[in-house]
Amino acid sequence: MSRIGKRPVPIPDKVTVTLKGNHVTVKGPKGQLERELPEGVTVSQADNTVIVERVNESRKSRERHGLCRTLIANMVEGVSNGYSKDLEIIGVGYRAAVKGKDLVLNVGYSNPVTIVPPDGIQFAVEKNTKVTVTGINKELVGNTAATVRATRPPEPYKGKGVRYSGEFIRRKAGKAGKK
Predict the structure, then answer these.
(1) Are 159 and 135 members of one domain?
(2) What is the pTM of this model?
(3) Domain finish residue from 80, 98, 131
(4) 116 lies in which domain range?
(5) Where are the alpha helices (DSSP H) in 118-165?
(6) At what angle do helices 138-150 and 59-80 cross, to 10 degrees?
């Protein structure tokens, strides 16, 4: 039995969960999220909790049991508190700015890189080098942060580039030099 799948998902006071078969809709103070869950699991609601159970003991059902529980828990967390990812820009002359809703990055290319956020994602820039990606969908926040990081991944020699806050970049020695 999946340890994660067995745990019920608690529903906070301001959040409502609507179940129609395997279609889950979660509404909260920050917004609304919907998701169609895969086959092999059943979802039920009882006493301010959501319970995910397997249909049978097949491999697919066992694989999806914990996954579906975590997806629902992430939806509940997203509409009540939201998610954010912090990025740091390191390098001489590297900077970021927000124009309208778009993020404009100057990271060593001849032209600035403009990133248009998907629906439900907001960018915030602090001190020209700290970028925060926020939203209610955990998957979308992570993918958008990865897209921003991919514009100029950190390089191992000087450490320049866009990195997640707290990310450790393993540094390499440069050329040995002539003797």
Answers:
(1) yes
(2) 0.82
(3) 80
(4) 83-164
(5) 138-150
(6) 90
